[in-house]
Write a structure and sequence with these properties.
The protein is α+β, with helices and mostly antiparallel strands and 477 residues long. The strands form five sheets. Strands 1, 2, 9, 10, 11, 12, 19 and 20 form an eight-stranded mixed sheet that branches. Strands 13, 15, 16, 17 and 18 form a five-stranded antiparallel sheet that branches. The protein has a four-stranded mixed sheet with strand order 6-7-5-14. The protein has three domains: 216 residues, FAD/NAD(P)-binding domain (3-Layer(bba) Sandwich); 152 residues, 2-Layer Sandwich (D-Amino Acid Oxidase, Chain A, domain 2); 84 residues, Orthogonal Bundle (Arc Repressor Mutant, subunit A). The chain starts with a strand and ends in a 21-residue tail after the last helix. Helix 2 packs across helix 8. Helices cover 31% and strands 23% of the residues.
Length: 477
């Protein structure tokens, strides 16, 4: 068959675009190179919904950040994604930095951001007692929020699939040709035809664009390292705490609660040549710690449970590249979607879908489209009565597999059985939080592997952590 649109890339932008197009009577295919969606930049970032004051007025970043911020809460509600509007602060430690805060306030107001004000250092500490005594002033942004980024991508993909979109994972697009007004995309699992191609390939968006015949895009991978702390430190701050923006570090190192109750600090920023270099470094971790401690001196390093690095796709323009390719008719690019790309993603997706609808001269609505996913509350969110009722219906929900995060066998099995469900250990982890706690899977991974093998009907030796040969076991003794 010939699809109306083939989307390349299963991060937040690609997945939300598939969902946005599923509203219409058209055929959609999402092709993801990794074993699962949300396996690239969408899995390793700050999880912050930015207010929108720090992007240059008139830029794509500014426009789509503000639009995305306004709808993010409702999108997360529809997709059963944890979201909290916790507000953010940008700290100033000198009079010069206070002047920069005033410039950010003017810029944010021009961008259409509400709820902005500059408060004194003592007012900031009244809201956040753990802040450094050296803070002179702060820009308070009431519309800032936090969310779970990988849940947004995975749940958007599931919603798209439930509404008729086809999703193929583990299928890197190797060749793209256009003949007779139709694209042919050759991927690892087959060859597919589509009238339009939407390039949402993140770090590899320039490669996809070149493969289709457009060499105007160049992406530089930028690594950012993070440190994640135990939930016992999750209440140390309630706002997302930034420092005054830096020309090299951008928004700089933040200190923030996560929407799931941990404390997160980072990232640093290092441009790379290799889009797969996601390791952490001693130098990077040390720099993060020192910078974060300037904002919040009392963070206890003993509470660290893991560190990780994420890669951002930086275009030469240092702005989002969104729109039709000038070189290849029918190719729609969404490239250079770095921060605040997570916040902007719902608005970008609606814009891309709108361009396809416009190009088609209008598309009818999908009469069976359902924007919402069924609510799947985790065990800590359930009342005792609701939990007992769930266990009575299925005893597997009473068998706790991950003790750190209180995740049951029933929740893990359900995450694997979903449309576009988990196919590997990390996929289970992102959908259920099994393995995200203090022991980082040290106790629960063998049991998760066993459930994954049982549900998929594949042998233990075929189970992987994150696809691509990352096998857990080598054989049976």
């Amino acid at each position: 068959m010939t699809y109306t649109a083939i989307i390349i890339g299963g991060g937040v932008v690609g997945a939300l675009t598939a969902r946005a197009l599923a509203k219409y009577s058209c055929s959609v295919l999402l092709v993801e190179k990794n074993s699962d969606v949300a396996a690239g930049s969408s899995k390793a970032n700050s999880g912050v919904a930015h207010a929108g004051f720090d992007a240059a007025p008139g830029s794509n970043k500014a426009v789509y950040n503000v639009l995305g911020s306004r709808v993010m809460e409702s999108v997360c509600e529809e997709l059963d994604v944890h979201y909290k509007r916790n507000g953010s602060m940008v700290l100033a430690f000198s009079e010069d930095e206070t002047a920069e805060l005033r410039a950010l306030l003017r810029q944010g107001t021009e961008n259409g951001v509400g709820g902005l004000s500059i408060i004194s250092g003592s007012e900031a500490r009244a809201l956040e007692p753990a802040l450094s005594g050296e803070v002179k002033s702060a820009l308070l942004a009431e519309t800032g929020g936090i969310l779970c980024p990988y849940s947004l991508a995975a749940n958007a993909a599931e919603c798209a699939a439930l509404n008729g979109a086809a999703i193929i994972r583990g299928a890197e697009a190797a060749d793209i040709r256009k003949e007779g007004g139709c694209f042919t995309v050759a991927a690892a699992l087959g060859t597919f035809k589509g009238k339009y191609v939407i390039n949402a390939a993140g770090l590899y968006a320039d490669k996809i664009s070149r493969a289709a015949g457009d060499d105007s895009i160049h992406i530089t991978p930028r690594r950012g390292e993070y440190m994640l702390f135990d939930k016992k430190l999750g209440g140390l701050v309630s706002h997302t705490i930034f420092q005054t923006p830096h020309k090299v570090l951008g928004k700089g190192v933040l200190v923030t609660p996560t929407v799931d109750g941990n404390l997160l600090i980072g990232p640093n920023a290092l441009n790379l040549d290799d889009g797969g270099a996601s390791e952490t470094t001693l130098a990077g971790q040390t720099a993060i710690w020192e910078l974060a401690s300037k904002s919040v001196p009392c963070i206890k390093r003993s509470g660290l449970i893991t560190s990780f690095a994420g890669l951002r796709a930086v275009a030469d323009e240092d702005d989002f590249i969104i729109g039709w390719s000038k070189a290849v008719p029918g190719l729609l690019n969404a490239a250079g979607i770095q921060s605040p790309g997570l916040t902007a993603s719902p608005a970008i997706a609606e814009y891309l879908a709108g361009l396809i609808v416009e190009a088609e001269g209008g598309l009818g609505l999908n009469p069976s489209f359902n924007p919402c996913l069924e609510k799947r509350p985790a065990i800590p969110e359930l009342s005792e009565a609701d939990l007992n009722a769930l266990i009575e219906k299925n005893a597997a929900y009473g068998n706790i597999v991950c003790r750190c995060e209180t995740v049951s066998e029933g929740h893990i099995s359900e995450a694997i059985r979903r449309d576009c469900g988990a196919v590997d250990i990390d996929g289970v982890k992102r959908r259920t939080r099994a393995g995200m706690g203090r022991c980082q899977g040290g106790f629960c991974m063998p049991r998760v592997l066993e459930i994954l093998a049982r549900e998929t009907g594949r042998p233990f030796t075929e189970m992987t952590k994150k696809g691509d040969g990352s096998y857990i076991l080598s054989g049976k003794r």
